TrEMBL record:
It comes from Achromobacter aloeverae. Zn(2+) binds at H655, C657, E679, C740. CDD domains: CIMS_C_terminal_like, CIMS_N_terminal_like. Pathway: Amino-acid biosynthesis; L-methionine biosynthesis via de novo pathway; L-methionine from L-homocysteine (MetE route): step 1/1. L-homocysteine binds at I445, G446, S447, E498, D613. This is 5-methyltetrahydropteroyltriglutamate--homocysteine methyltransferase. Zn(2+) 1 binds at H655, C657, E679, C740. NCBIfam families: met_syn_B12ind, PRK05222.1.
Amino acid sequence: MTTIHNLGFPRIGAQRELKRAVEAYWAGQSTQEELEATGRELRARHWKMQADAGLAFVPVGDFAWYDHILEWTTLLGAVPARFAQRDDRPVTLDTLFRMGRGRAPTGTPAAACEMTKWFDTNYHYIVPELTPNQTYRLARTALFDQVREAQALGYAVKPVIPGPLTWLWLGKGDAYVAGAGDEAKLALLDALLPVYAEVLDRLARLGVAWVQVDEPILALDLPAAWRAAYGRVYADLAKAPVKLLLATYFDGLQDNLGTAAALPVAGLHVDLVRAPEQLADVAAALRDDQVLSAGVINGRNIWRTDLDAALHTLAPVHAQLGDRLWLAPSCSLLHVPVDLAFETELDAELKSWLSFAAQKLDELNVLGQALGGAADAADATVREALATQRAALQVRARSPRIHNPAVAARLAGSTHVKLEREPFGERIVRQQARLNLPAYPTTTIGSFPQTQEIRALRRDWKAGALSDSAYETAIRKEIEAVIRFQERIGLDVLVHGEPERNDMVEYFGELLAGFAFTRNGWVQSYGSRCVKPPVIFGDVARPAPITVGWSAYAQSLTDKPVKGMLTGPVTILQWSFVRDDQPRAETCRQLALALRDEVVDLEGAGIRVIQIDEPAIREGLPLRRADWQAYLDWAVDCFRLSTSGVRGDTQIHTHMCYSEFNDIIESIGAMDADVITIETSRSNMDLLKAFEDYRYPNDIGPGVYDIHTPNVPEVGWMVDLMRKAAARLPRERLWVNPDCGLKTRAWPETEASLVSMVQAARALRETA
Ligand code: GLN
Ligand code: ZN
């Protein structure tokens, strides 16, 4: 049988056992020993699943209490000074937790390390903090302990570690500002490599044959200095008495193939799901003694693999490489839920189209056996597995649940839909005449505190304990309270507060056709936080208006404009598992058309201002710059498709909450929203520079206070921030609003903060 292996397994547990265990430990409800025991159980369970599926080795080092990069950073002893780590002591679990979240049951609280998105996934890693002349040492032994743990259970192991260049690339520090930081970062290699040598040496002494070294940055556009560093770094690592499997994923090697293929490593893993076209080139570039690990099972999505297609692709390479061809998922399975077996409420047909981590291991097994020749020979189970697979895919391909001719026809016709609205200069005049807003108008981003009572209402209603009408009455009461509150404190453009929404994507998915929801489809987002992305499995359509009733009710209570509130097509796409049988752009267009109807219906119901949130536009950017424009073009078109159905005097807002608008400012301009509200308060309005340089023409509401903390902002401080904004942009274009929605806040600080914010706006109007 062909060698099969795995790059990493989800550590959180099928029932989020790890989340519960760490949270109980943080809360002082369990001991460290109990926590360790849960970790051991989960590792043992996951190793067993992988060994049972016939994997040649089980991965070790993919387990993490909080984040695998943080595990590695602490192993290297790279602990920032504020955590008061002594150089001669091991880094404890509590210090690791303090770095991840600022607090732990022991140790002094300190500011947590920054967290940021792991490449183009929704997983967030803890950013290593680099300092000039930083020293490294082996400061934690968890990796070695876990190797022994797996060996004691009888498994062959393959440790998985982040490569030195990827670890440095991911790191940040004052001395490593963009552009000037490369050489300085690379200078840290001299201190770093001896620790890597020590780690590899110790692993060898534990009897380890193969070590997987993850270098996903080889799938990025790399500056020359980084590419050049690879040769020397791997010449050094290759001195260790182990075989190195260099793992790349999330995109193709492209211009880095020459670099990767020249390294003295024993094997190379490539992602053939994201970049199938690289297979022949990579196979041709390998030396005779090197292994090619083909990542053919999608580690980023939840669809059953087309094994026939995979076999077809692999056959010639198998003929060429024989045993030197290994099979694996495209990347770590961290990004998919654990086991479909827990989905008791999905219908059998839909389930037969899906594959979670456990099922992906089985697919790998079948593929490995089939490639080894078992398919034509006697092995009936393999033949049967392939046949089952084929049948499921055939049913899926033709299913009327997926293909809705009305959606297809509408999509085909949508190329003629006009995406342009009348010029902003004309629109804004008409909008102002209709809305009659003061200078520096105030508004909020949409949600108001999601109190325990609101959550309980929804829970009871979903459980059937509360009737539809009782639920509606209760939500209406909530909306009325929010409207009265906003009127009382003097906000200008009101919102209904989103009390009916559990989540900004799930809510829309539940009311659109083409979506399915799992019960246990959890994927780690960061630390103990998991998300359960909806599954877009079929053509998207809007069977009935979604938000119109709530918004119209809210508007009926007041003369002030109430903003309709929608989640944009790109964000819904980005935060879901998306079907793989058509391009993402097409699914996004279907979403855009459904939202377009909602926007038009809102206008028809008398809503004068409509906000379409697109916080995920930027995170959808492909990893390679060459692919950016194509993505931005369809993403912007989708936004415009959803918004261009309304009159010029209907005001369209959008909201984005992330930093860094520089590289995409032209596309933000092309979205042509009348008003964009953005997260800026923590950057001291520096983020507006991109808008200033671009001479962004439309209205903009730079957030004046951070909603991530309960701190109440001072009036003077917000006035100052707005003055900074006015120094960069015309004051007639400015709005005053918080950074983001208020759903995670409590009422007392919400009220105090917004009262101050309104005062700040009044002060600005008077002094202007
Ligand atoms: N309208 C949403 C809210 O206020 C926006 C959330 C977001 O930007 N993530 O909650
Ligand atoms: Zn936001």
